[in-house]
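During the second half of the funding period, the structural biology subgroup turned its attention to how the target accommodates small molecules. The most pressing case was guanosine-5'-triphosphate, which had performed well in the primary screen but for which no bound structure existed. We therefore specified the complex as follows and requested a full 3D prediction, including the ligand pose.
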Amino acid sequence: MNYNNSEFLASYGLSRQLPDSDRPEIVFSGRSNVGKSSLINKLCNRKKLARVSATPGKTATINFYRVDTAYFVDLPGYGYAKVSNAERERWDDLINSYFEADRAVCLLVQLLDSRHAPSADDVQMLEYLHYHRIPFVAALTKGDKLKKSEMAARKEEFEKICAPYGCQGVVLTSAENGLGMDELRALLEASMTP
Ligand code: GTP
Ligand code: MG
């Protein structure tokens, strides 16, 4: 797959219809501020394909990117403390409507902050993925913030946590220095080959 051939398509809220499901989709999910947009940019060798926010909770829509022959789908971040109940409900509706639309999802990349244990929201998301049998891998983000000496142990810890939910692989990544990008790309490509 040519990651250098990418473009932003559109943002979708509840009222807008999603684009036709005419190519495989790679979905990115995770807490607000975990680094979804940054990871998408790094995978695509772009600085501003996906908007990186200093203020969390900014991406309250599903953002679609076309990356060569696939779609990258950036889900709105969850777990941001300062949202109202109405906004939370809207998030639920948006996510459910996306997964219930029976689209060509070949893999979901669940982002988890490598420095912290999964939050209650993360665990809820893992349960959701497991329950709906959505194939997924975990990308541990901000790996550049870990000490070299703790990397292997951290990864192992997350593997143990994620495996019961059907996780197909754990990759330690960094959008800062490119750690894990080749490994993650290989998993994306494997999921797209029938
Ligand atoms: P929302 O769209 O609000 O849900 O956030 P997001 O998950 O898209 O996170 P985003 O990519 O906007 O990054 C949030 C913050 O984390 C930014 O300040 C990024 O610069 C920082 N960040 C993201 N990835 C990394 C990383 O690998 N290493 C470091 N050190 N910082 C990162
Ligand atoms: Mg974002």
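Two results from this model are relevant to the next phase. The mean pLDDT is 92. The pocket of magnesium ion (ligand 2) is lined by residues 36-37, 53, 59 (CB under 6 Å).
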